[in-house]
């Protein structure tokens, strides 16, 4: 029996080989897919050892009575290169202009932007399993896991050009007086800083919520900038808040962007991109065809939202649901809270009002519905080729946590121009 017949590529990918049952390392499948994508360049050396072990575990799982050597596993891995197809919606560029890594990758918003500019992703990490599933389907890579673990960090290759990280807006505890590297320990930003310190990329591109500007009266941002400038020696211009609606998507989403360049490049100025002044409205991202009745609110829930808003208005608060007109701009898509209720829309195309889910009352006859996951995807700049393989609840969370691709790409374009010019 030949090696190709002993085990298939699909089994090692994990469709029948249950990784959780036999996998000694959470990074096995990630190393395996990263190796397949990079087998023609030097980056593959960072992933080969773990990729071979992954195949070995798969063979041992399928043939428990046979003794499987690492040499056999390596030969099997080489056979799989012939079967490996890159038929994913967003493959790596064949002639990349630069290399980048994608930390806290989510579902790949940064990656799409960077690939559009000719970048090749050589490492990606994300801890959420549902987000990893979406990432794999669209890019062919399984992200590595928890970046706080040294076991994960060891797979980050040398020699990449740009570090991208939409690091979570985790609460900072600024206890020290120095406001530098030591004061960020215990935060996820420290993990990013540690990787920058070790790998010394040419450029860094970080994204976070607008509130980082004023968090702890500005002390948090000051600490981050001190780390990047003083401890790590990067040129970091004053961060800016950019709004997604200024870059071609109808979403009012403000985020802080932090850009930096390694000091030896001699870059001493950086201009953030200017608004495109495109007048894009929700109508341009609205579903072209009627959507399922499951997205329409019940009259009972709608009345609850109306009463909730009235109570807050009587107290002078601005909380409550909001209906976005077709000619309007959506509020920021966010997971949790009133994320979906702040982005309701009118859609009178529904003909069958029979509920398909368990609801209280009847489906409202005013045509008020939630936006669909695809509409959220479009609000974030994801092209329609982007596959949504998860249930709606996970999809809303993933797009709500993602970045607005057009704003990321506009900023990244300016970064790439400088690093290529100063290479």
From TrEMBL:
The active site is at 169. It is an enzyme of class 2 (transferase). It comes from the Bacteria. One of its GO terms (molecular function) is methyltransferase activity. Its EC number is 2.1.1.37. GO terms for biological process: methylation. It catalyses: a 2'-deoxycytidine in DNA + S-adenosyl-L-methionine = a 5-methyl-2'-deoxycytidine in DNA + S-adenosyl-L-homocysteine + H(+). The keyword Electron transport does not apply. The keyword S-adenosyl-L-methionine applies. Pfam families: DNA_methylase. Keywords: Methyltransferase, Restriction system, S-adenosyl-L-methionine, Transferase. CDD domains: Cyt_C5_DNA_methylase (cd00315). InterPro entries: C5-MTase, C5_DNA_meth_AS, C5_MeTfrase, SAM-dependent_MTases_sf. PANTHER family: TRNA (CYTOSINE(38)-C(5))-METHYLTRANSFERASE. NCBIfam families: dcm. Belongs to the class I-like SAM-binding methyltransferase superfamily. C5-methyltransferase family. This is Cytosine-specific methyltransferase. It comes from Belliella kenyensis.
């Amino acid at each position: 029996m030949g090696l190709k017949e002993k085990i298939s590529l699909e089994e090692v990918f994990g469709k029948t080989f249950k990784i959780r049952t036999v996998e000694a390392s959470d990074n096995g499948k990630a190393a395996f897919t990263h190796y397949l994508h990079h087998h023609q360049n030097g980056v593959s050396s960072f992933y080969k050892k773990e990729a071979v072990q992954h195949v070995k575990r798969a063979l041992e799982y399928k043939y428990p009575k046979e003794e499987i050597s690492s040499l056999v596993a390596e030969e099997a891995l080489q056979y799989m290169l012939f079967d490996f197809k890159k038929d994913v919606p967003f493959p790596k560029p064949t002639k990349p202009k630069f290399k980048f890594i994608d930390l806290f990758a989510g579902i790949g918003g940064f990656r799409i932007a960077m690939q559009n500019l000719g970048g090749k992703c050589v490492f990606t990490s994300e801890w959420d399993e549902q987000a990893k599933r979406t990432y794999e389907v669209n890019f062919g890579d399984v992200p590595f896991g928890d970046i706080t673990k040294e076991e994960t960090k060891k797979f980050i290759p040398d020699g990449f050009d740009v570090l991208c990280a939409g690091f979570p807006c985790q609460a900072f505890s600024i206890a020290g007086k120095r406001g530098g590297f030591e004061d960020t320990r215990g935060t996820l930003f420290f993990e990013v800083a540690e990787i920058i310190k070790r790998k010394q990329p040419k450029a860094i591109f970080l994204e976070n919520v607008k509130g980082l500007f004023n968090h702890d009266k500005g002390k948090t941002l000051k600490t981050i900038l001190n780390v990047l400038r003083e401890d790590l020696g990067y040129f970091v211009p004053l961060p800016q808040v950019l709004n997604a609606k200024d870059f071609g998507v109808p979403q009012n989403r403000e985020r802080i962007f932090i850009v930096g360049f390694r000091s030896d490049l001699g870059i001493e100025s950086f201009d953030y991109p200017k608004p495109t002044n495109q007048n894009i409205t929700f109508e341009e991202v609205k579903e072209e065809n009627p959507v399922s009745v499951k997205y329409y609110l019940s009259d009972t829930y709608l009345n609850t939202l109306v009463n909730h808003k009235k109570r807050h208005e009587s107290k002078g608060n601005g909380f409550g649901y909001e209906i976005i007109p077709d000619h309007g701009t959506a509020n920021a898509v966010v997971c949790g809270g009133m994320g979906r209720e702040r982005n309701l829309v009118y859609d009178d195309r529904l003909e069958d009002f029979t509920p398909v889910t368990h609801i209280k009352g009847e489906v409202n006859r005013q045509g008020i519905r939630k936006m669909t996951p695809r509409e959220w995807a479009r609000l974030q700049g994801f092209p329609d080729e982007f596959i949504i393989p998860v249930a709606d609840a996970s999809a809303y969370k993933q797009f709500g946590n993602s970045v607005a691709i057009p704003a990321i790409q506009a900023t990244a374009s300016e970064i790439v121009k400088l690093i290529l010019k100063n290479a």
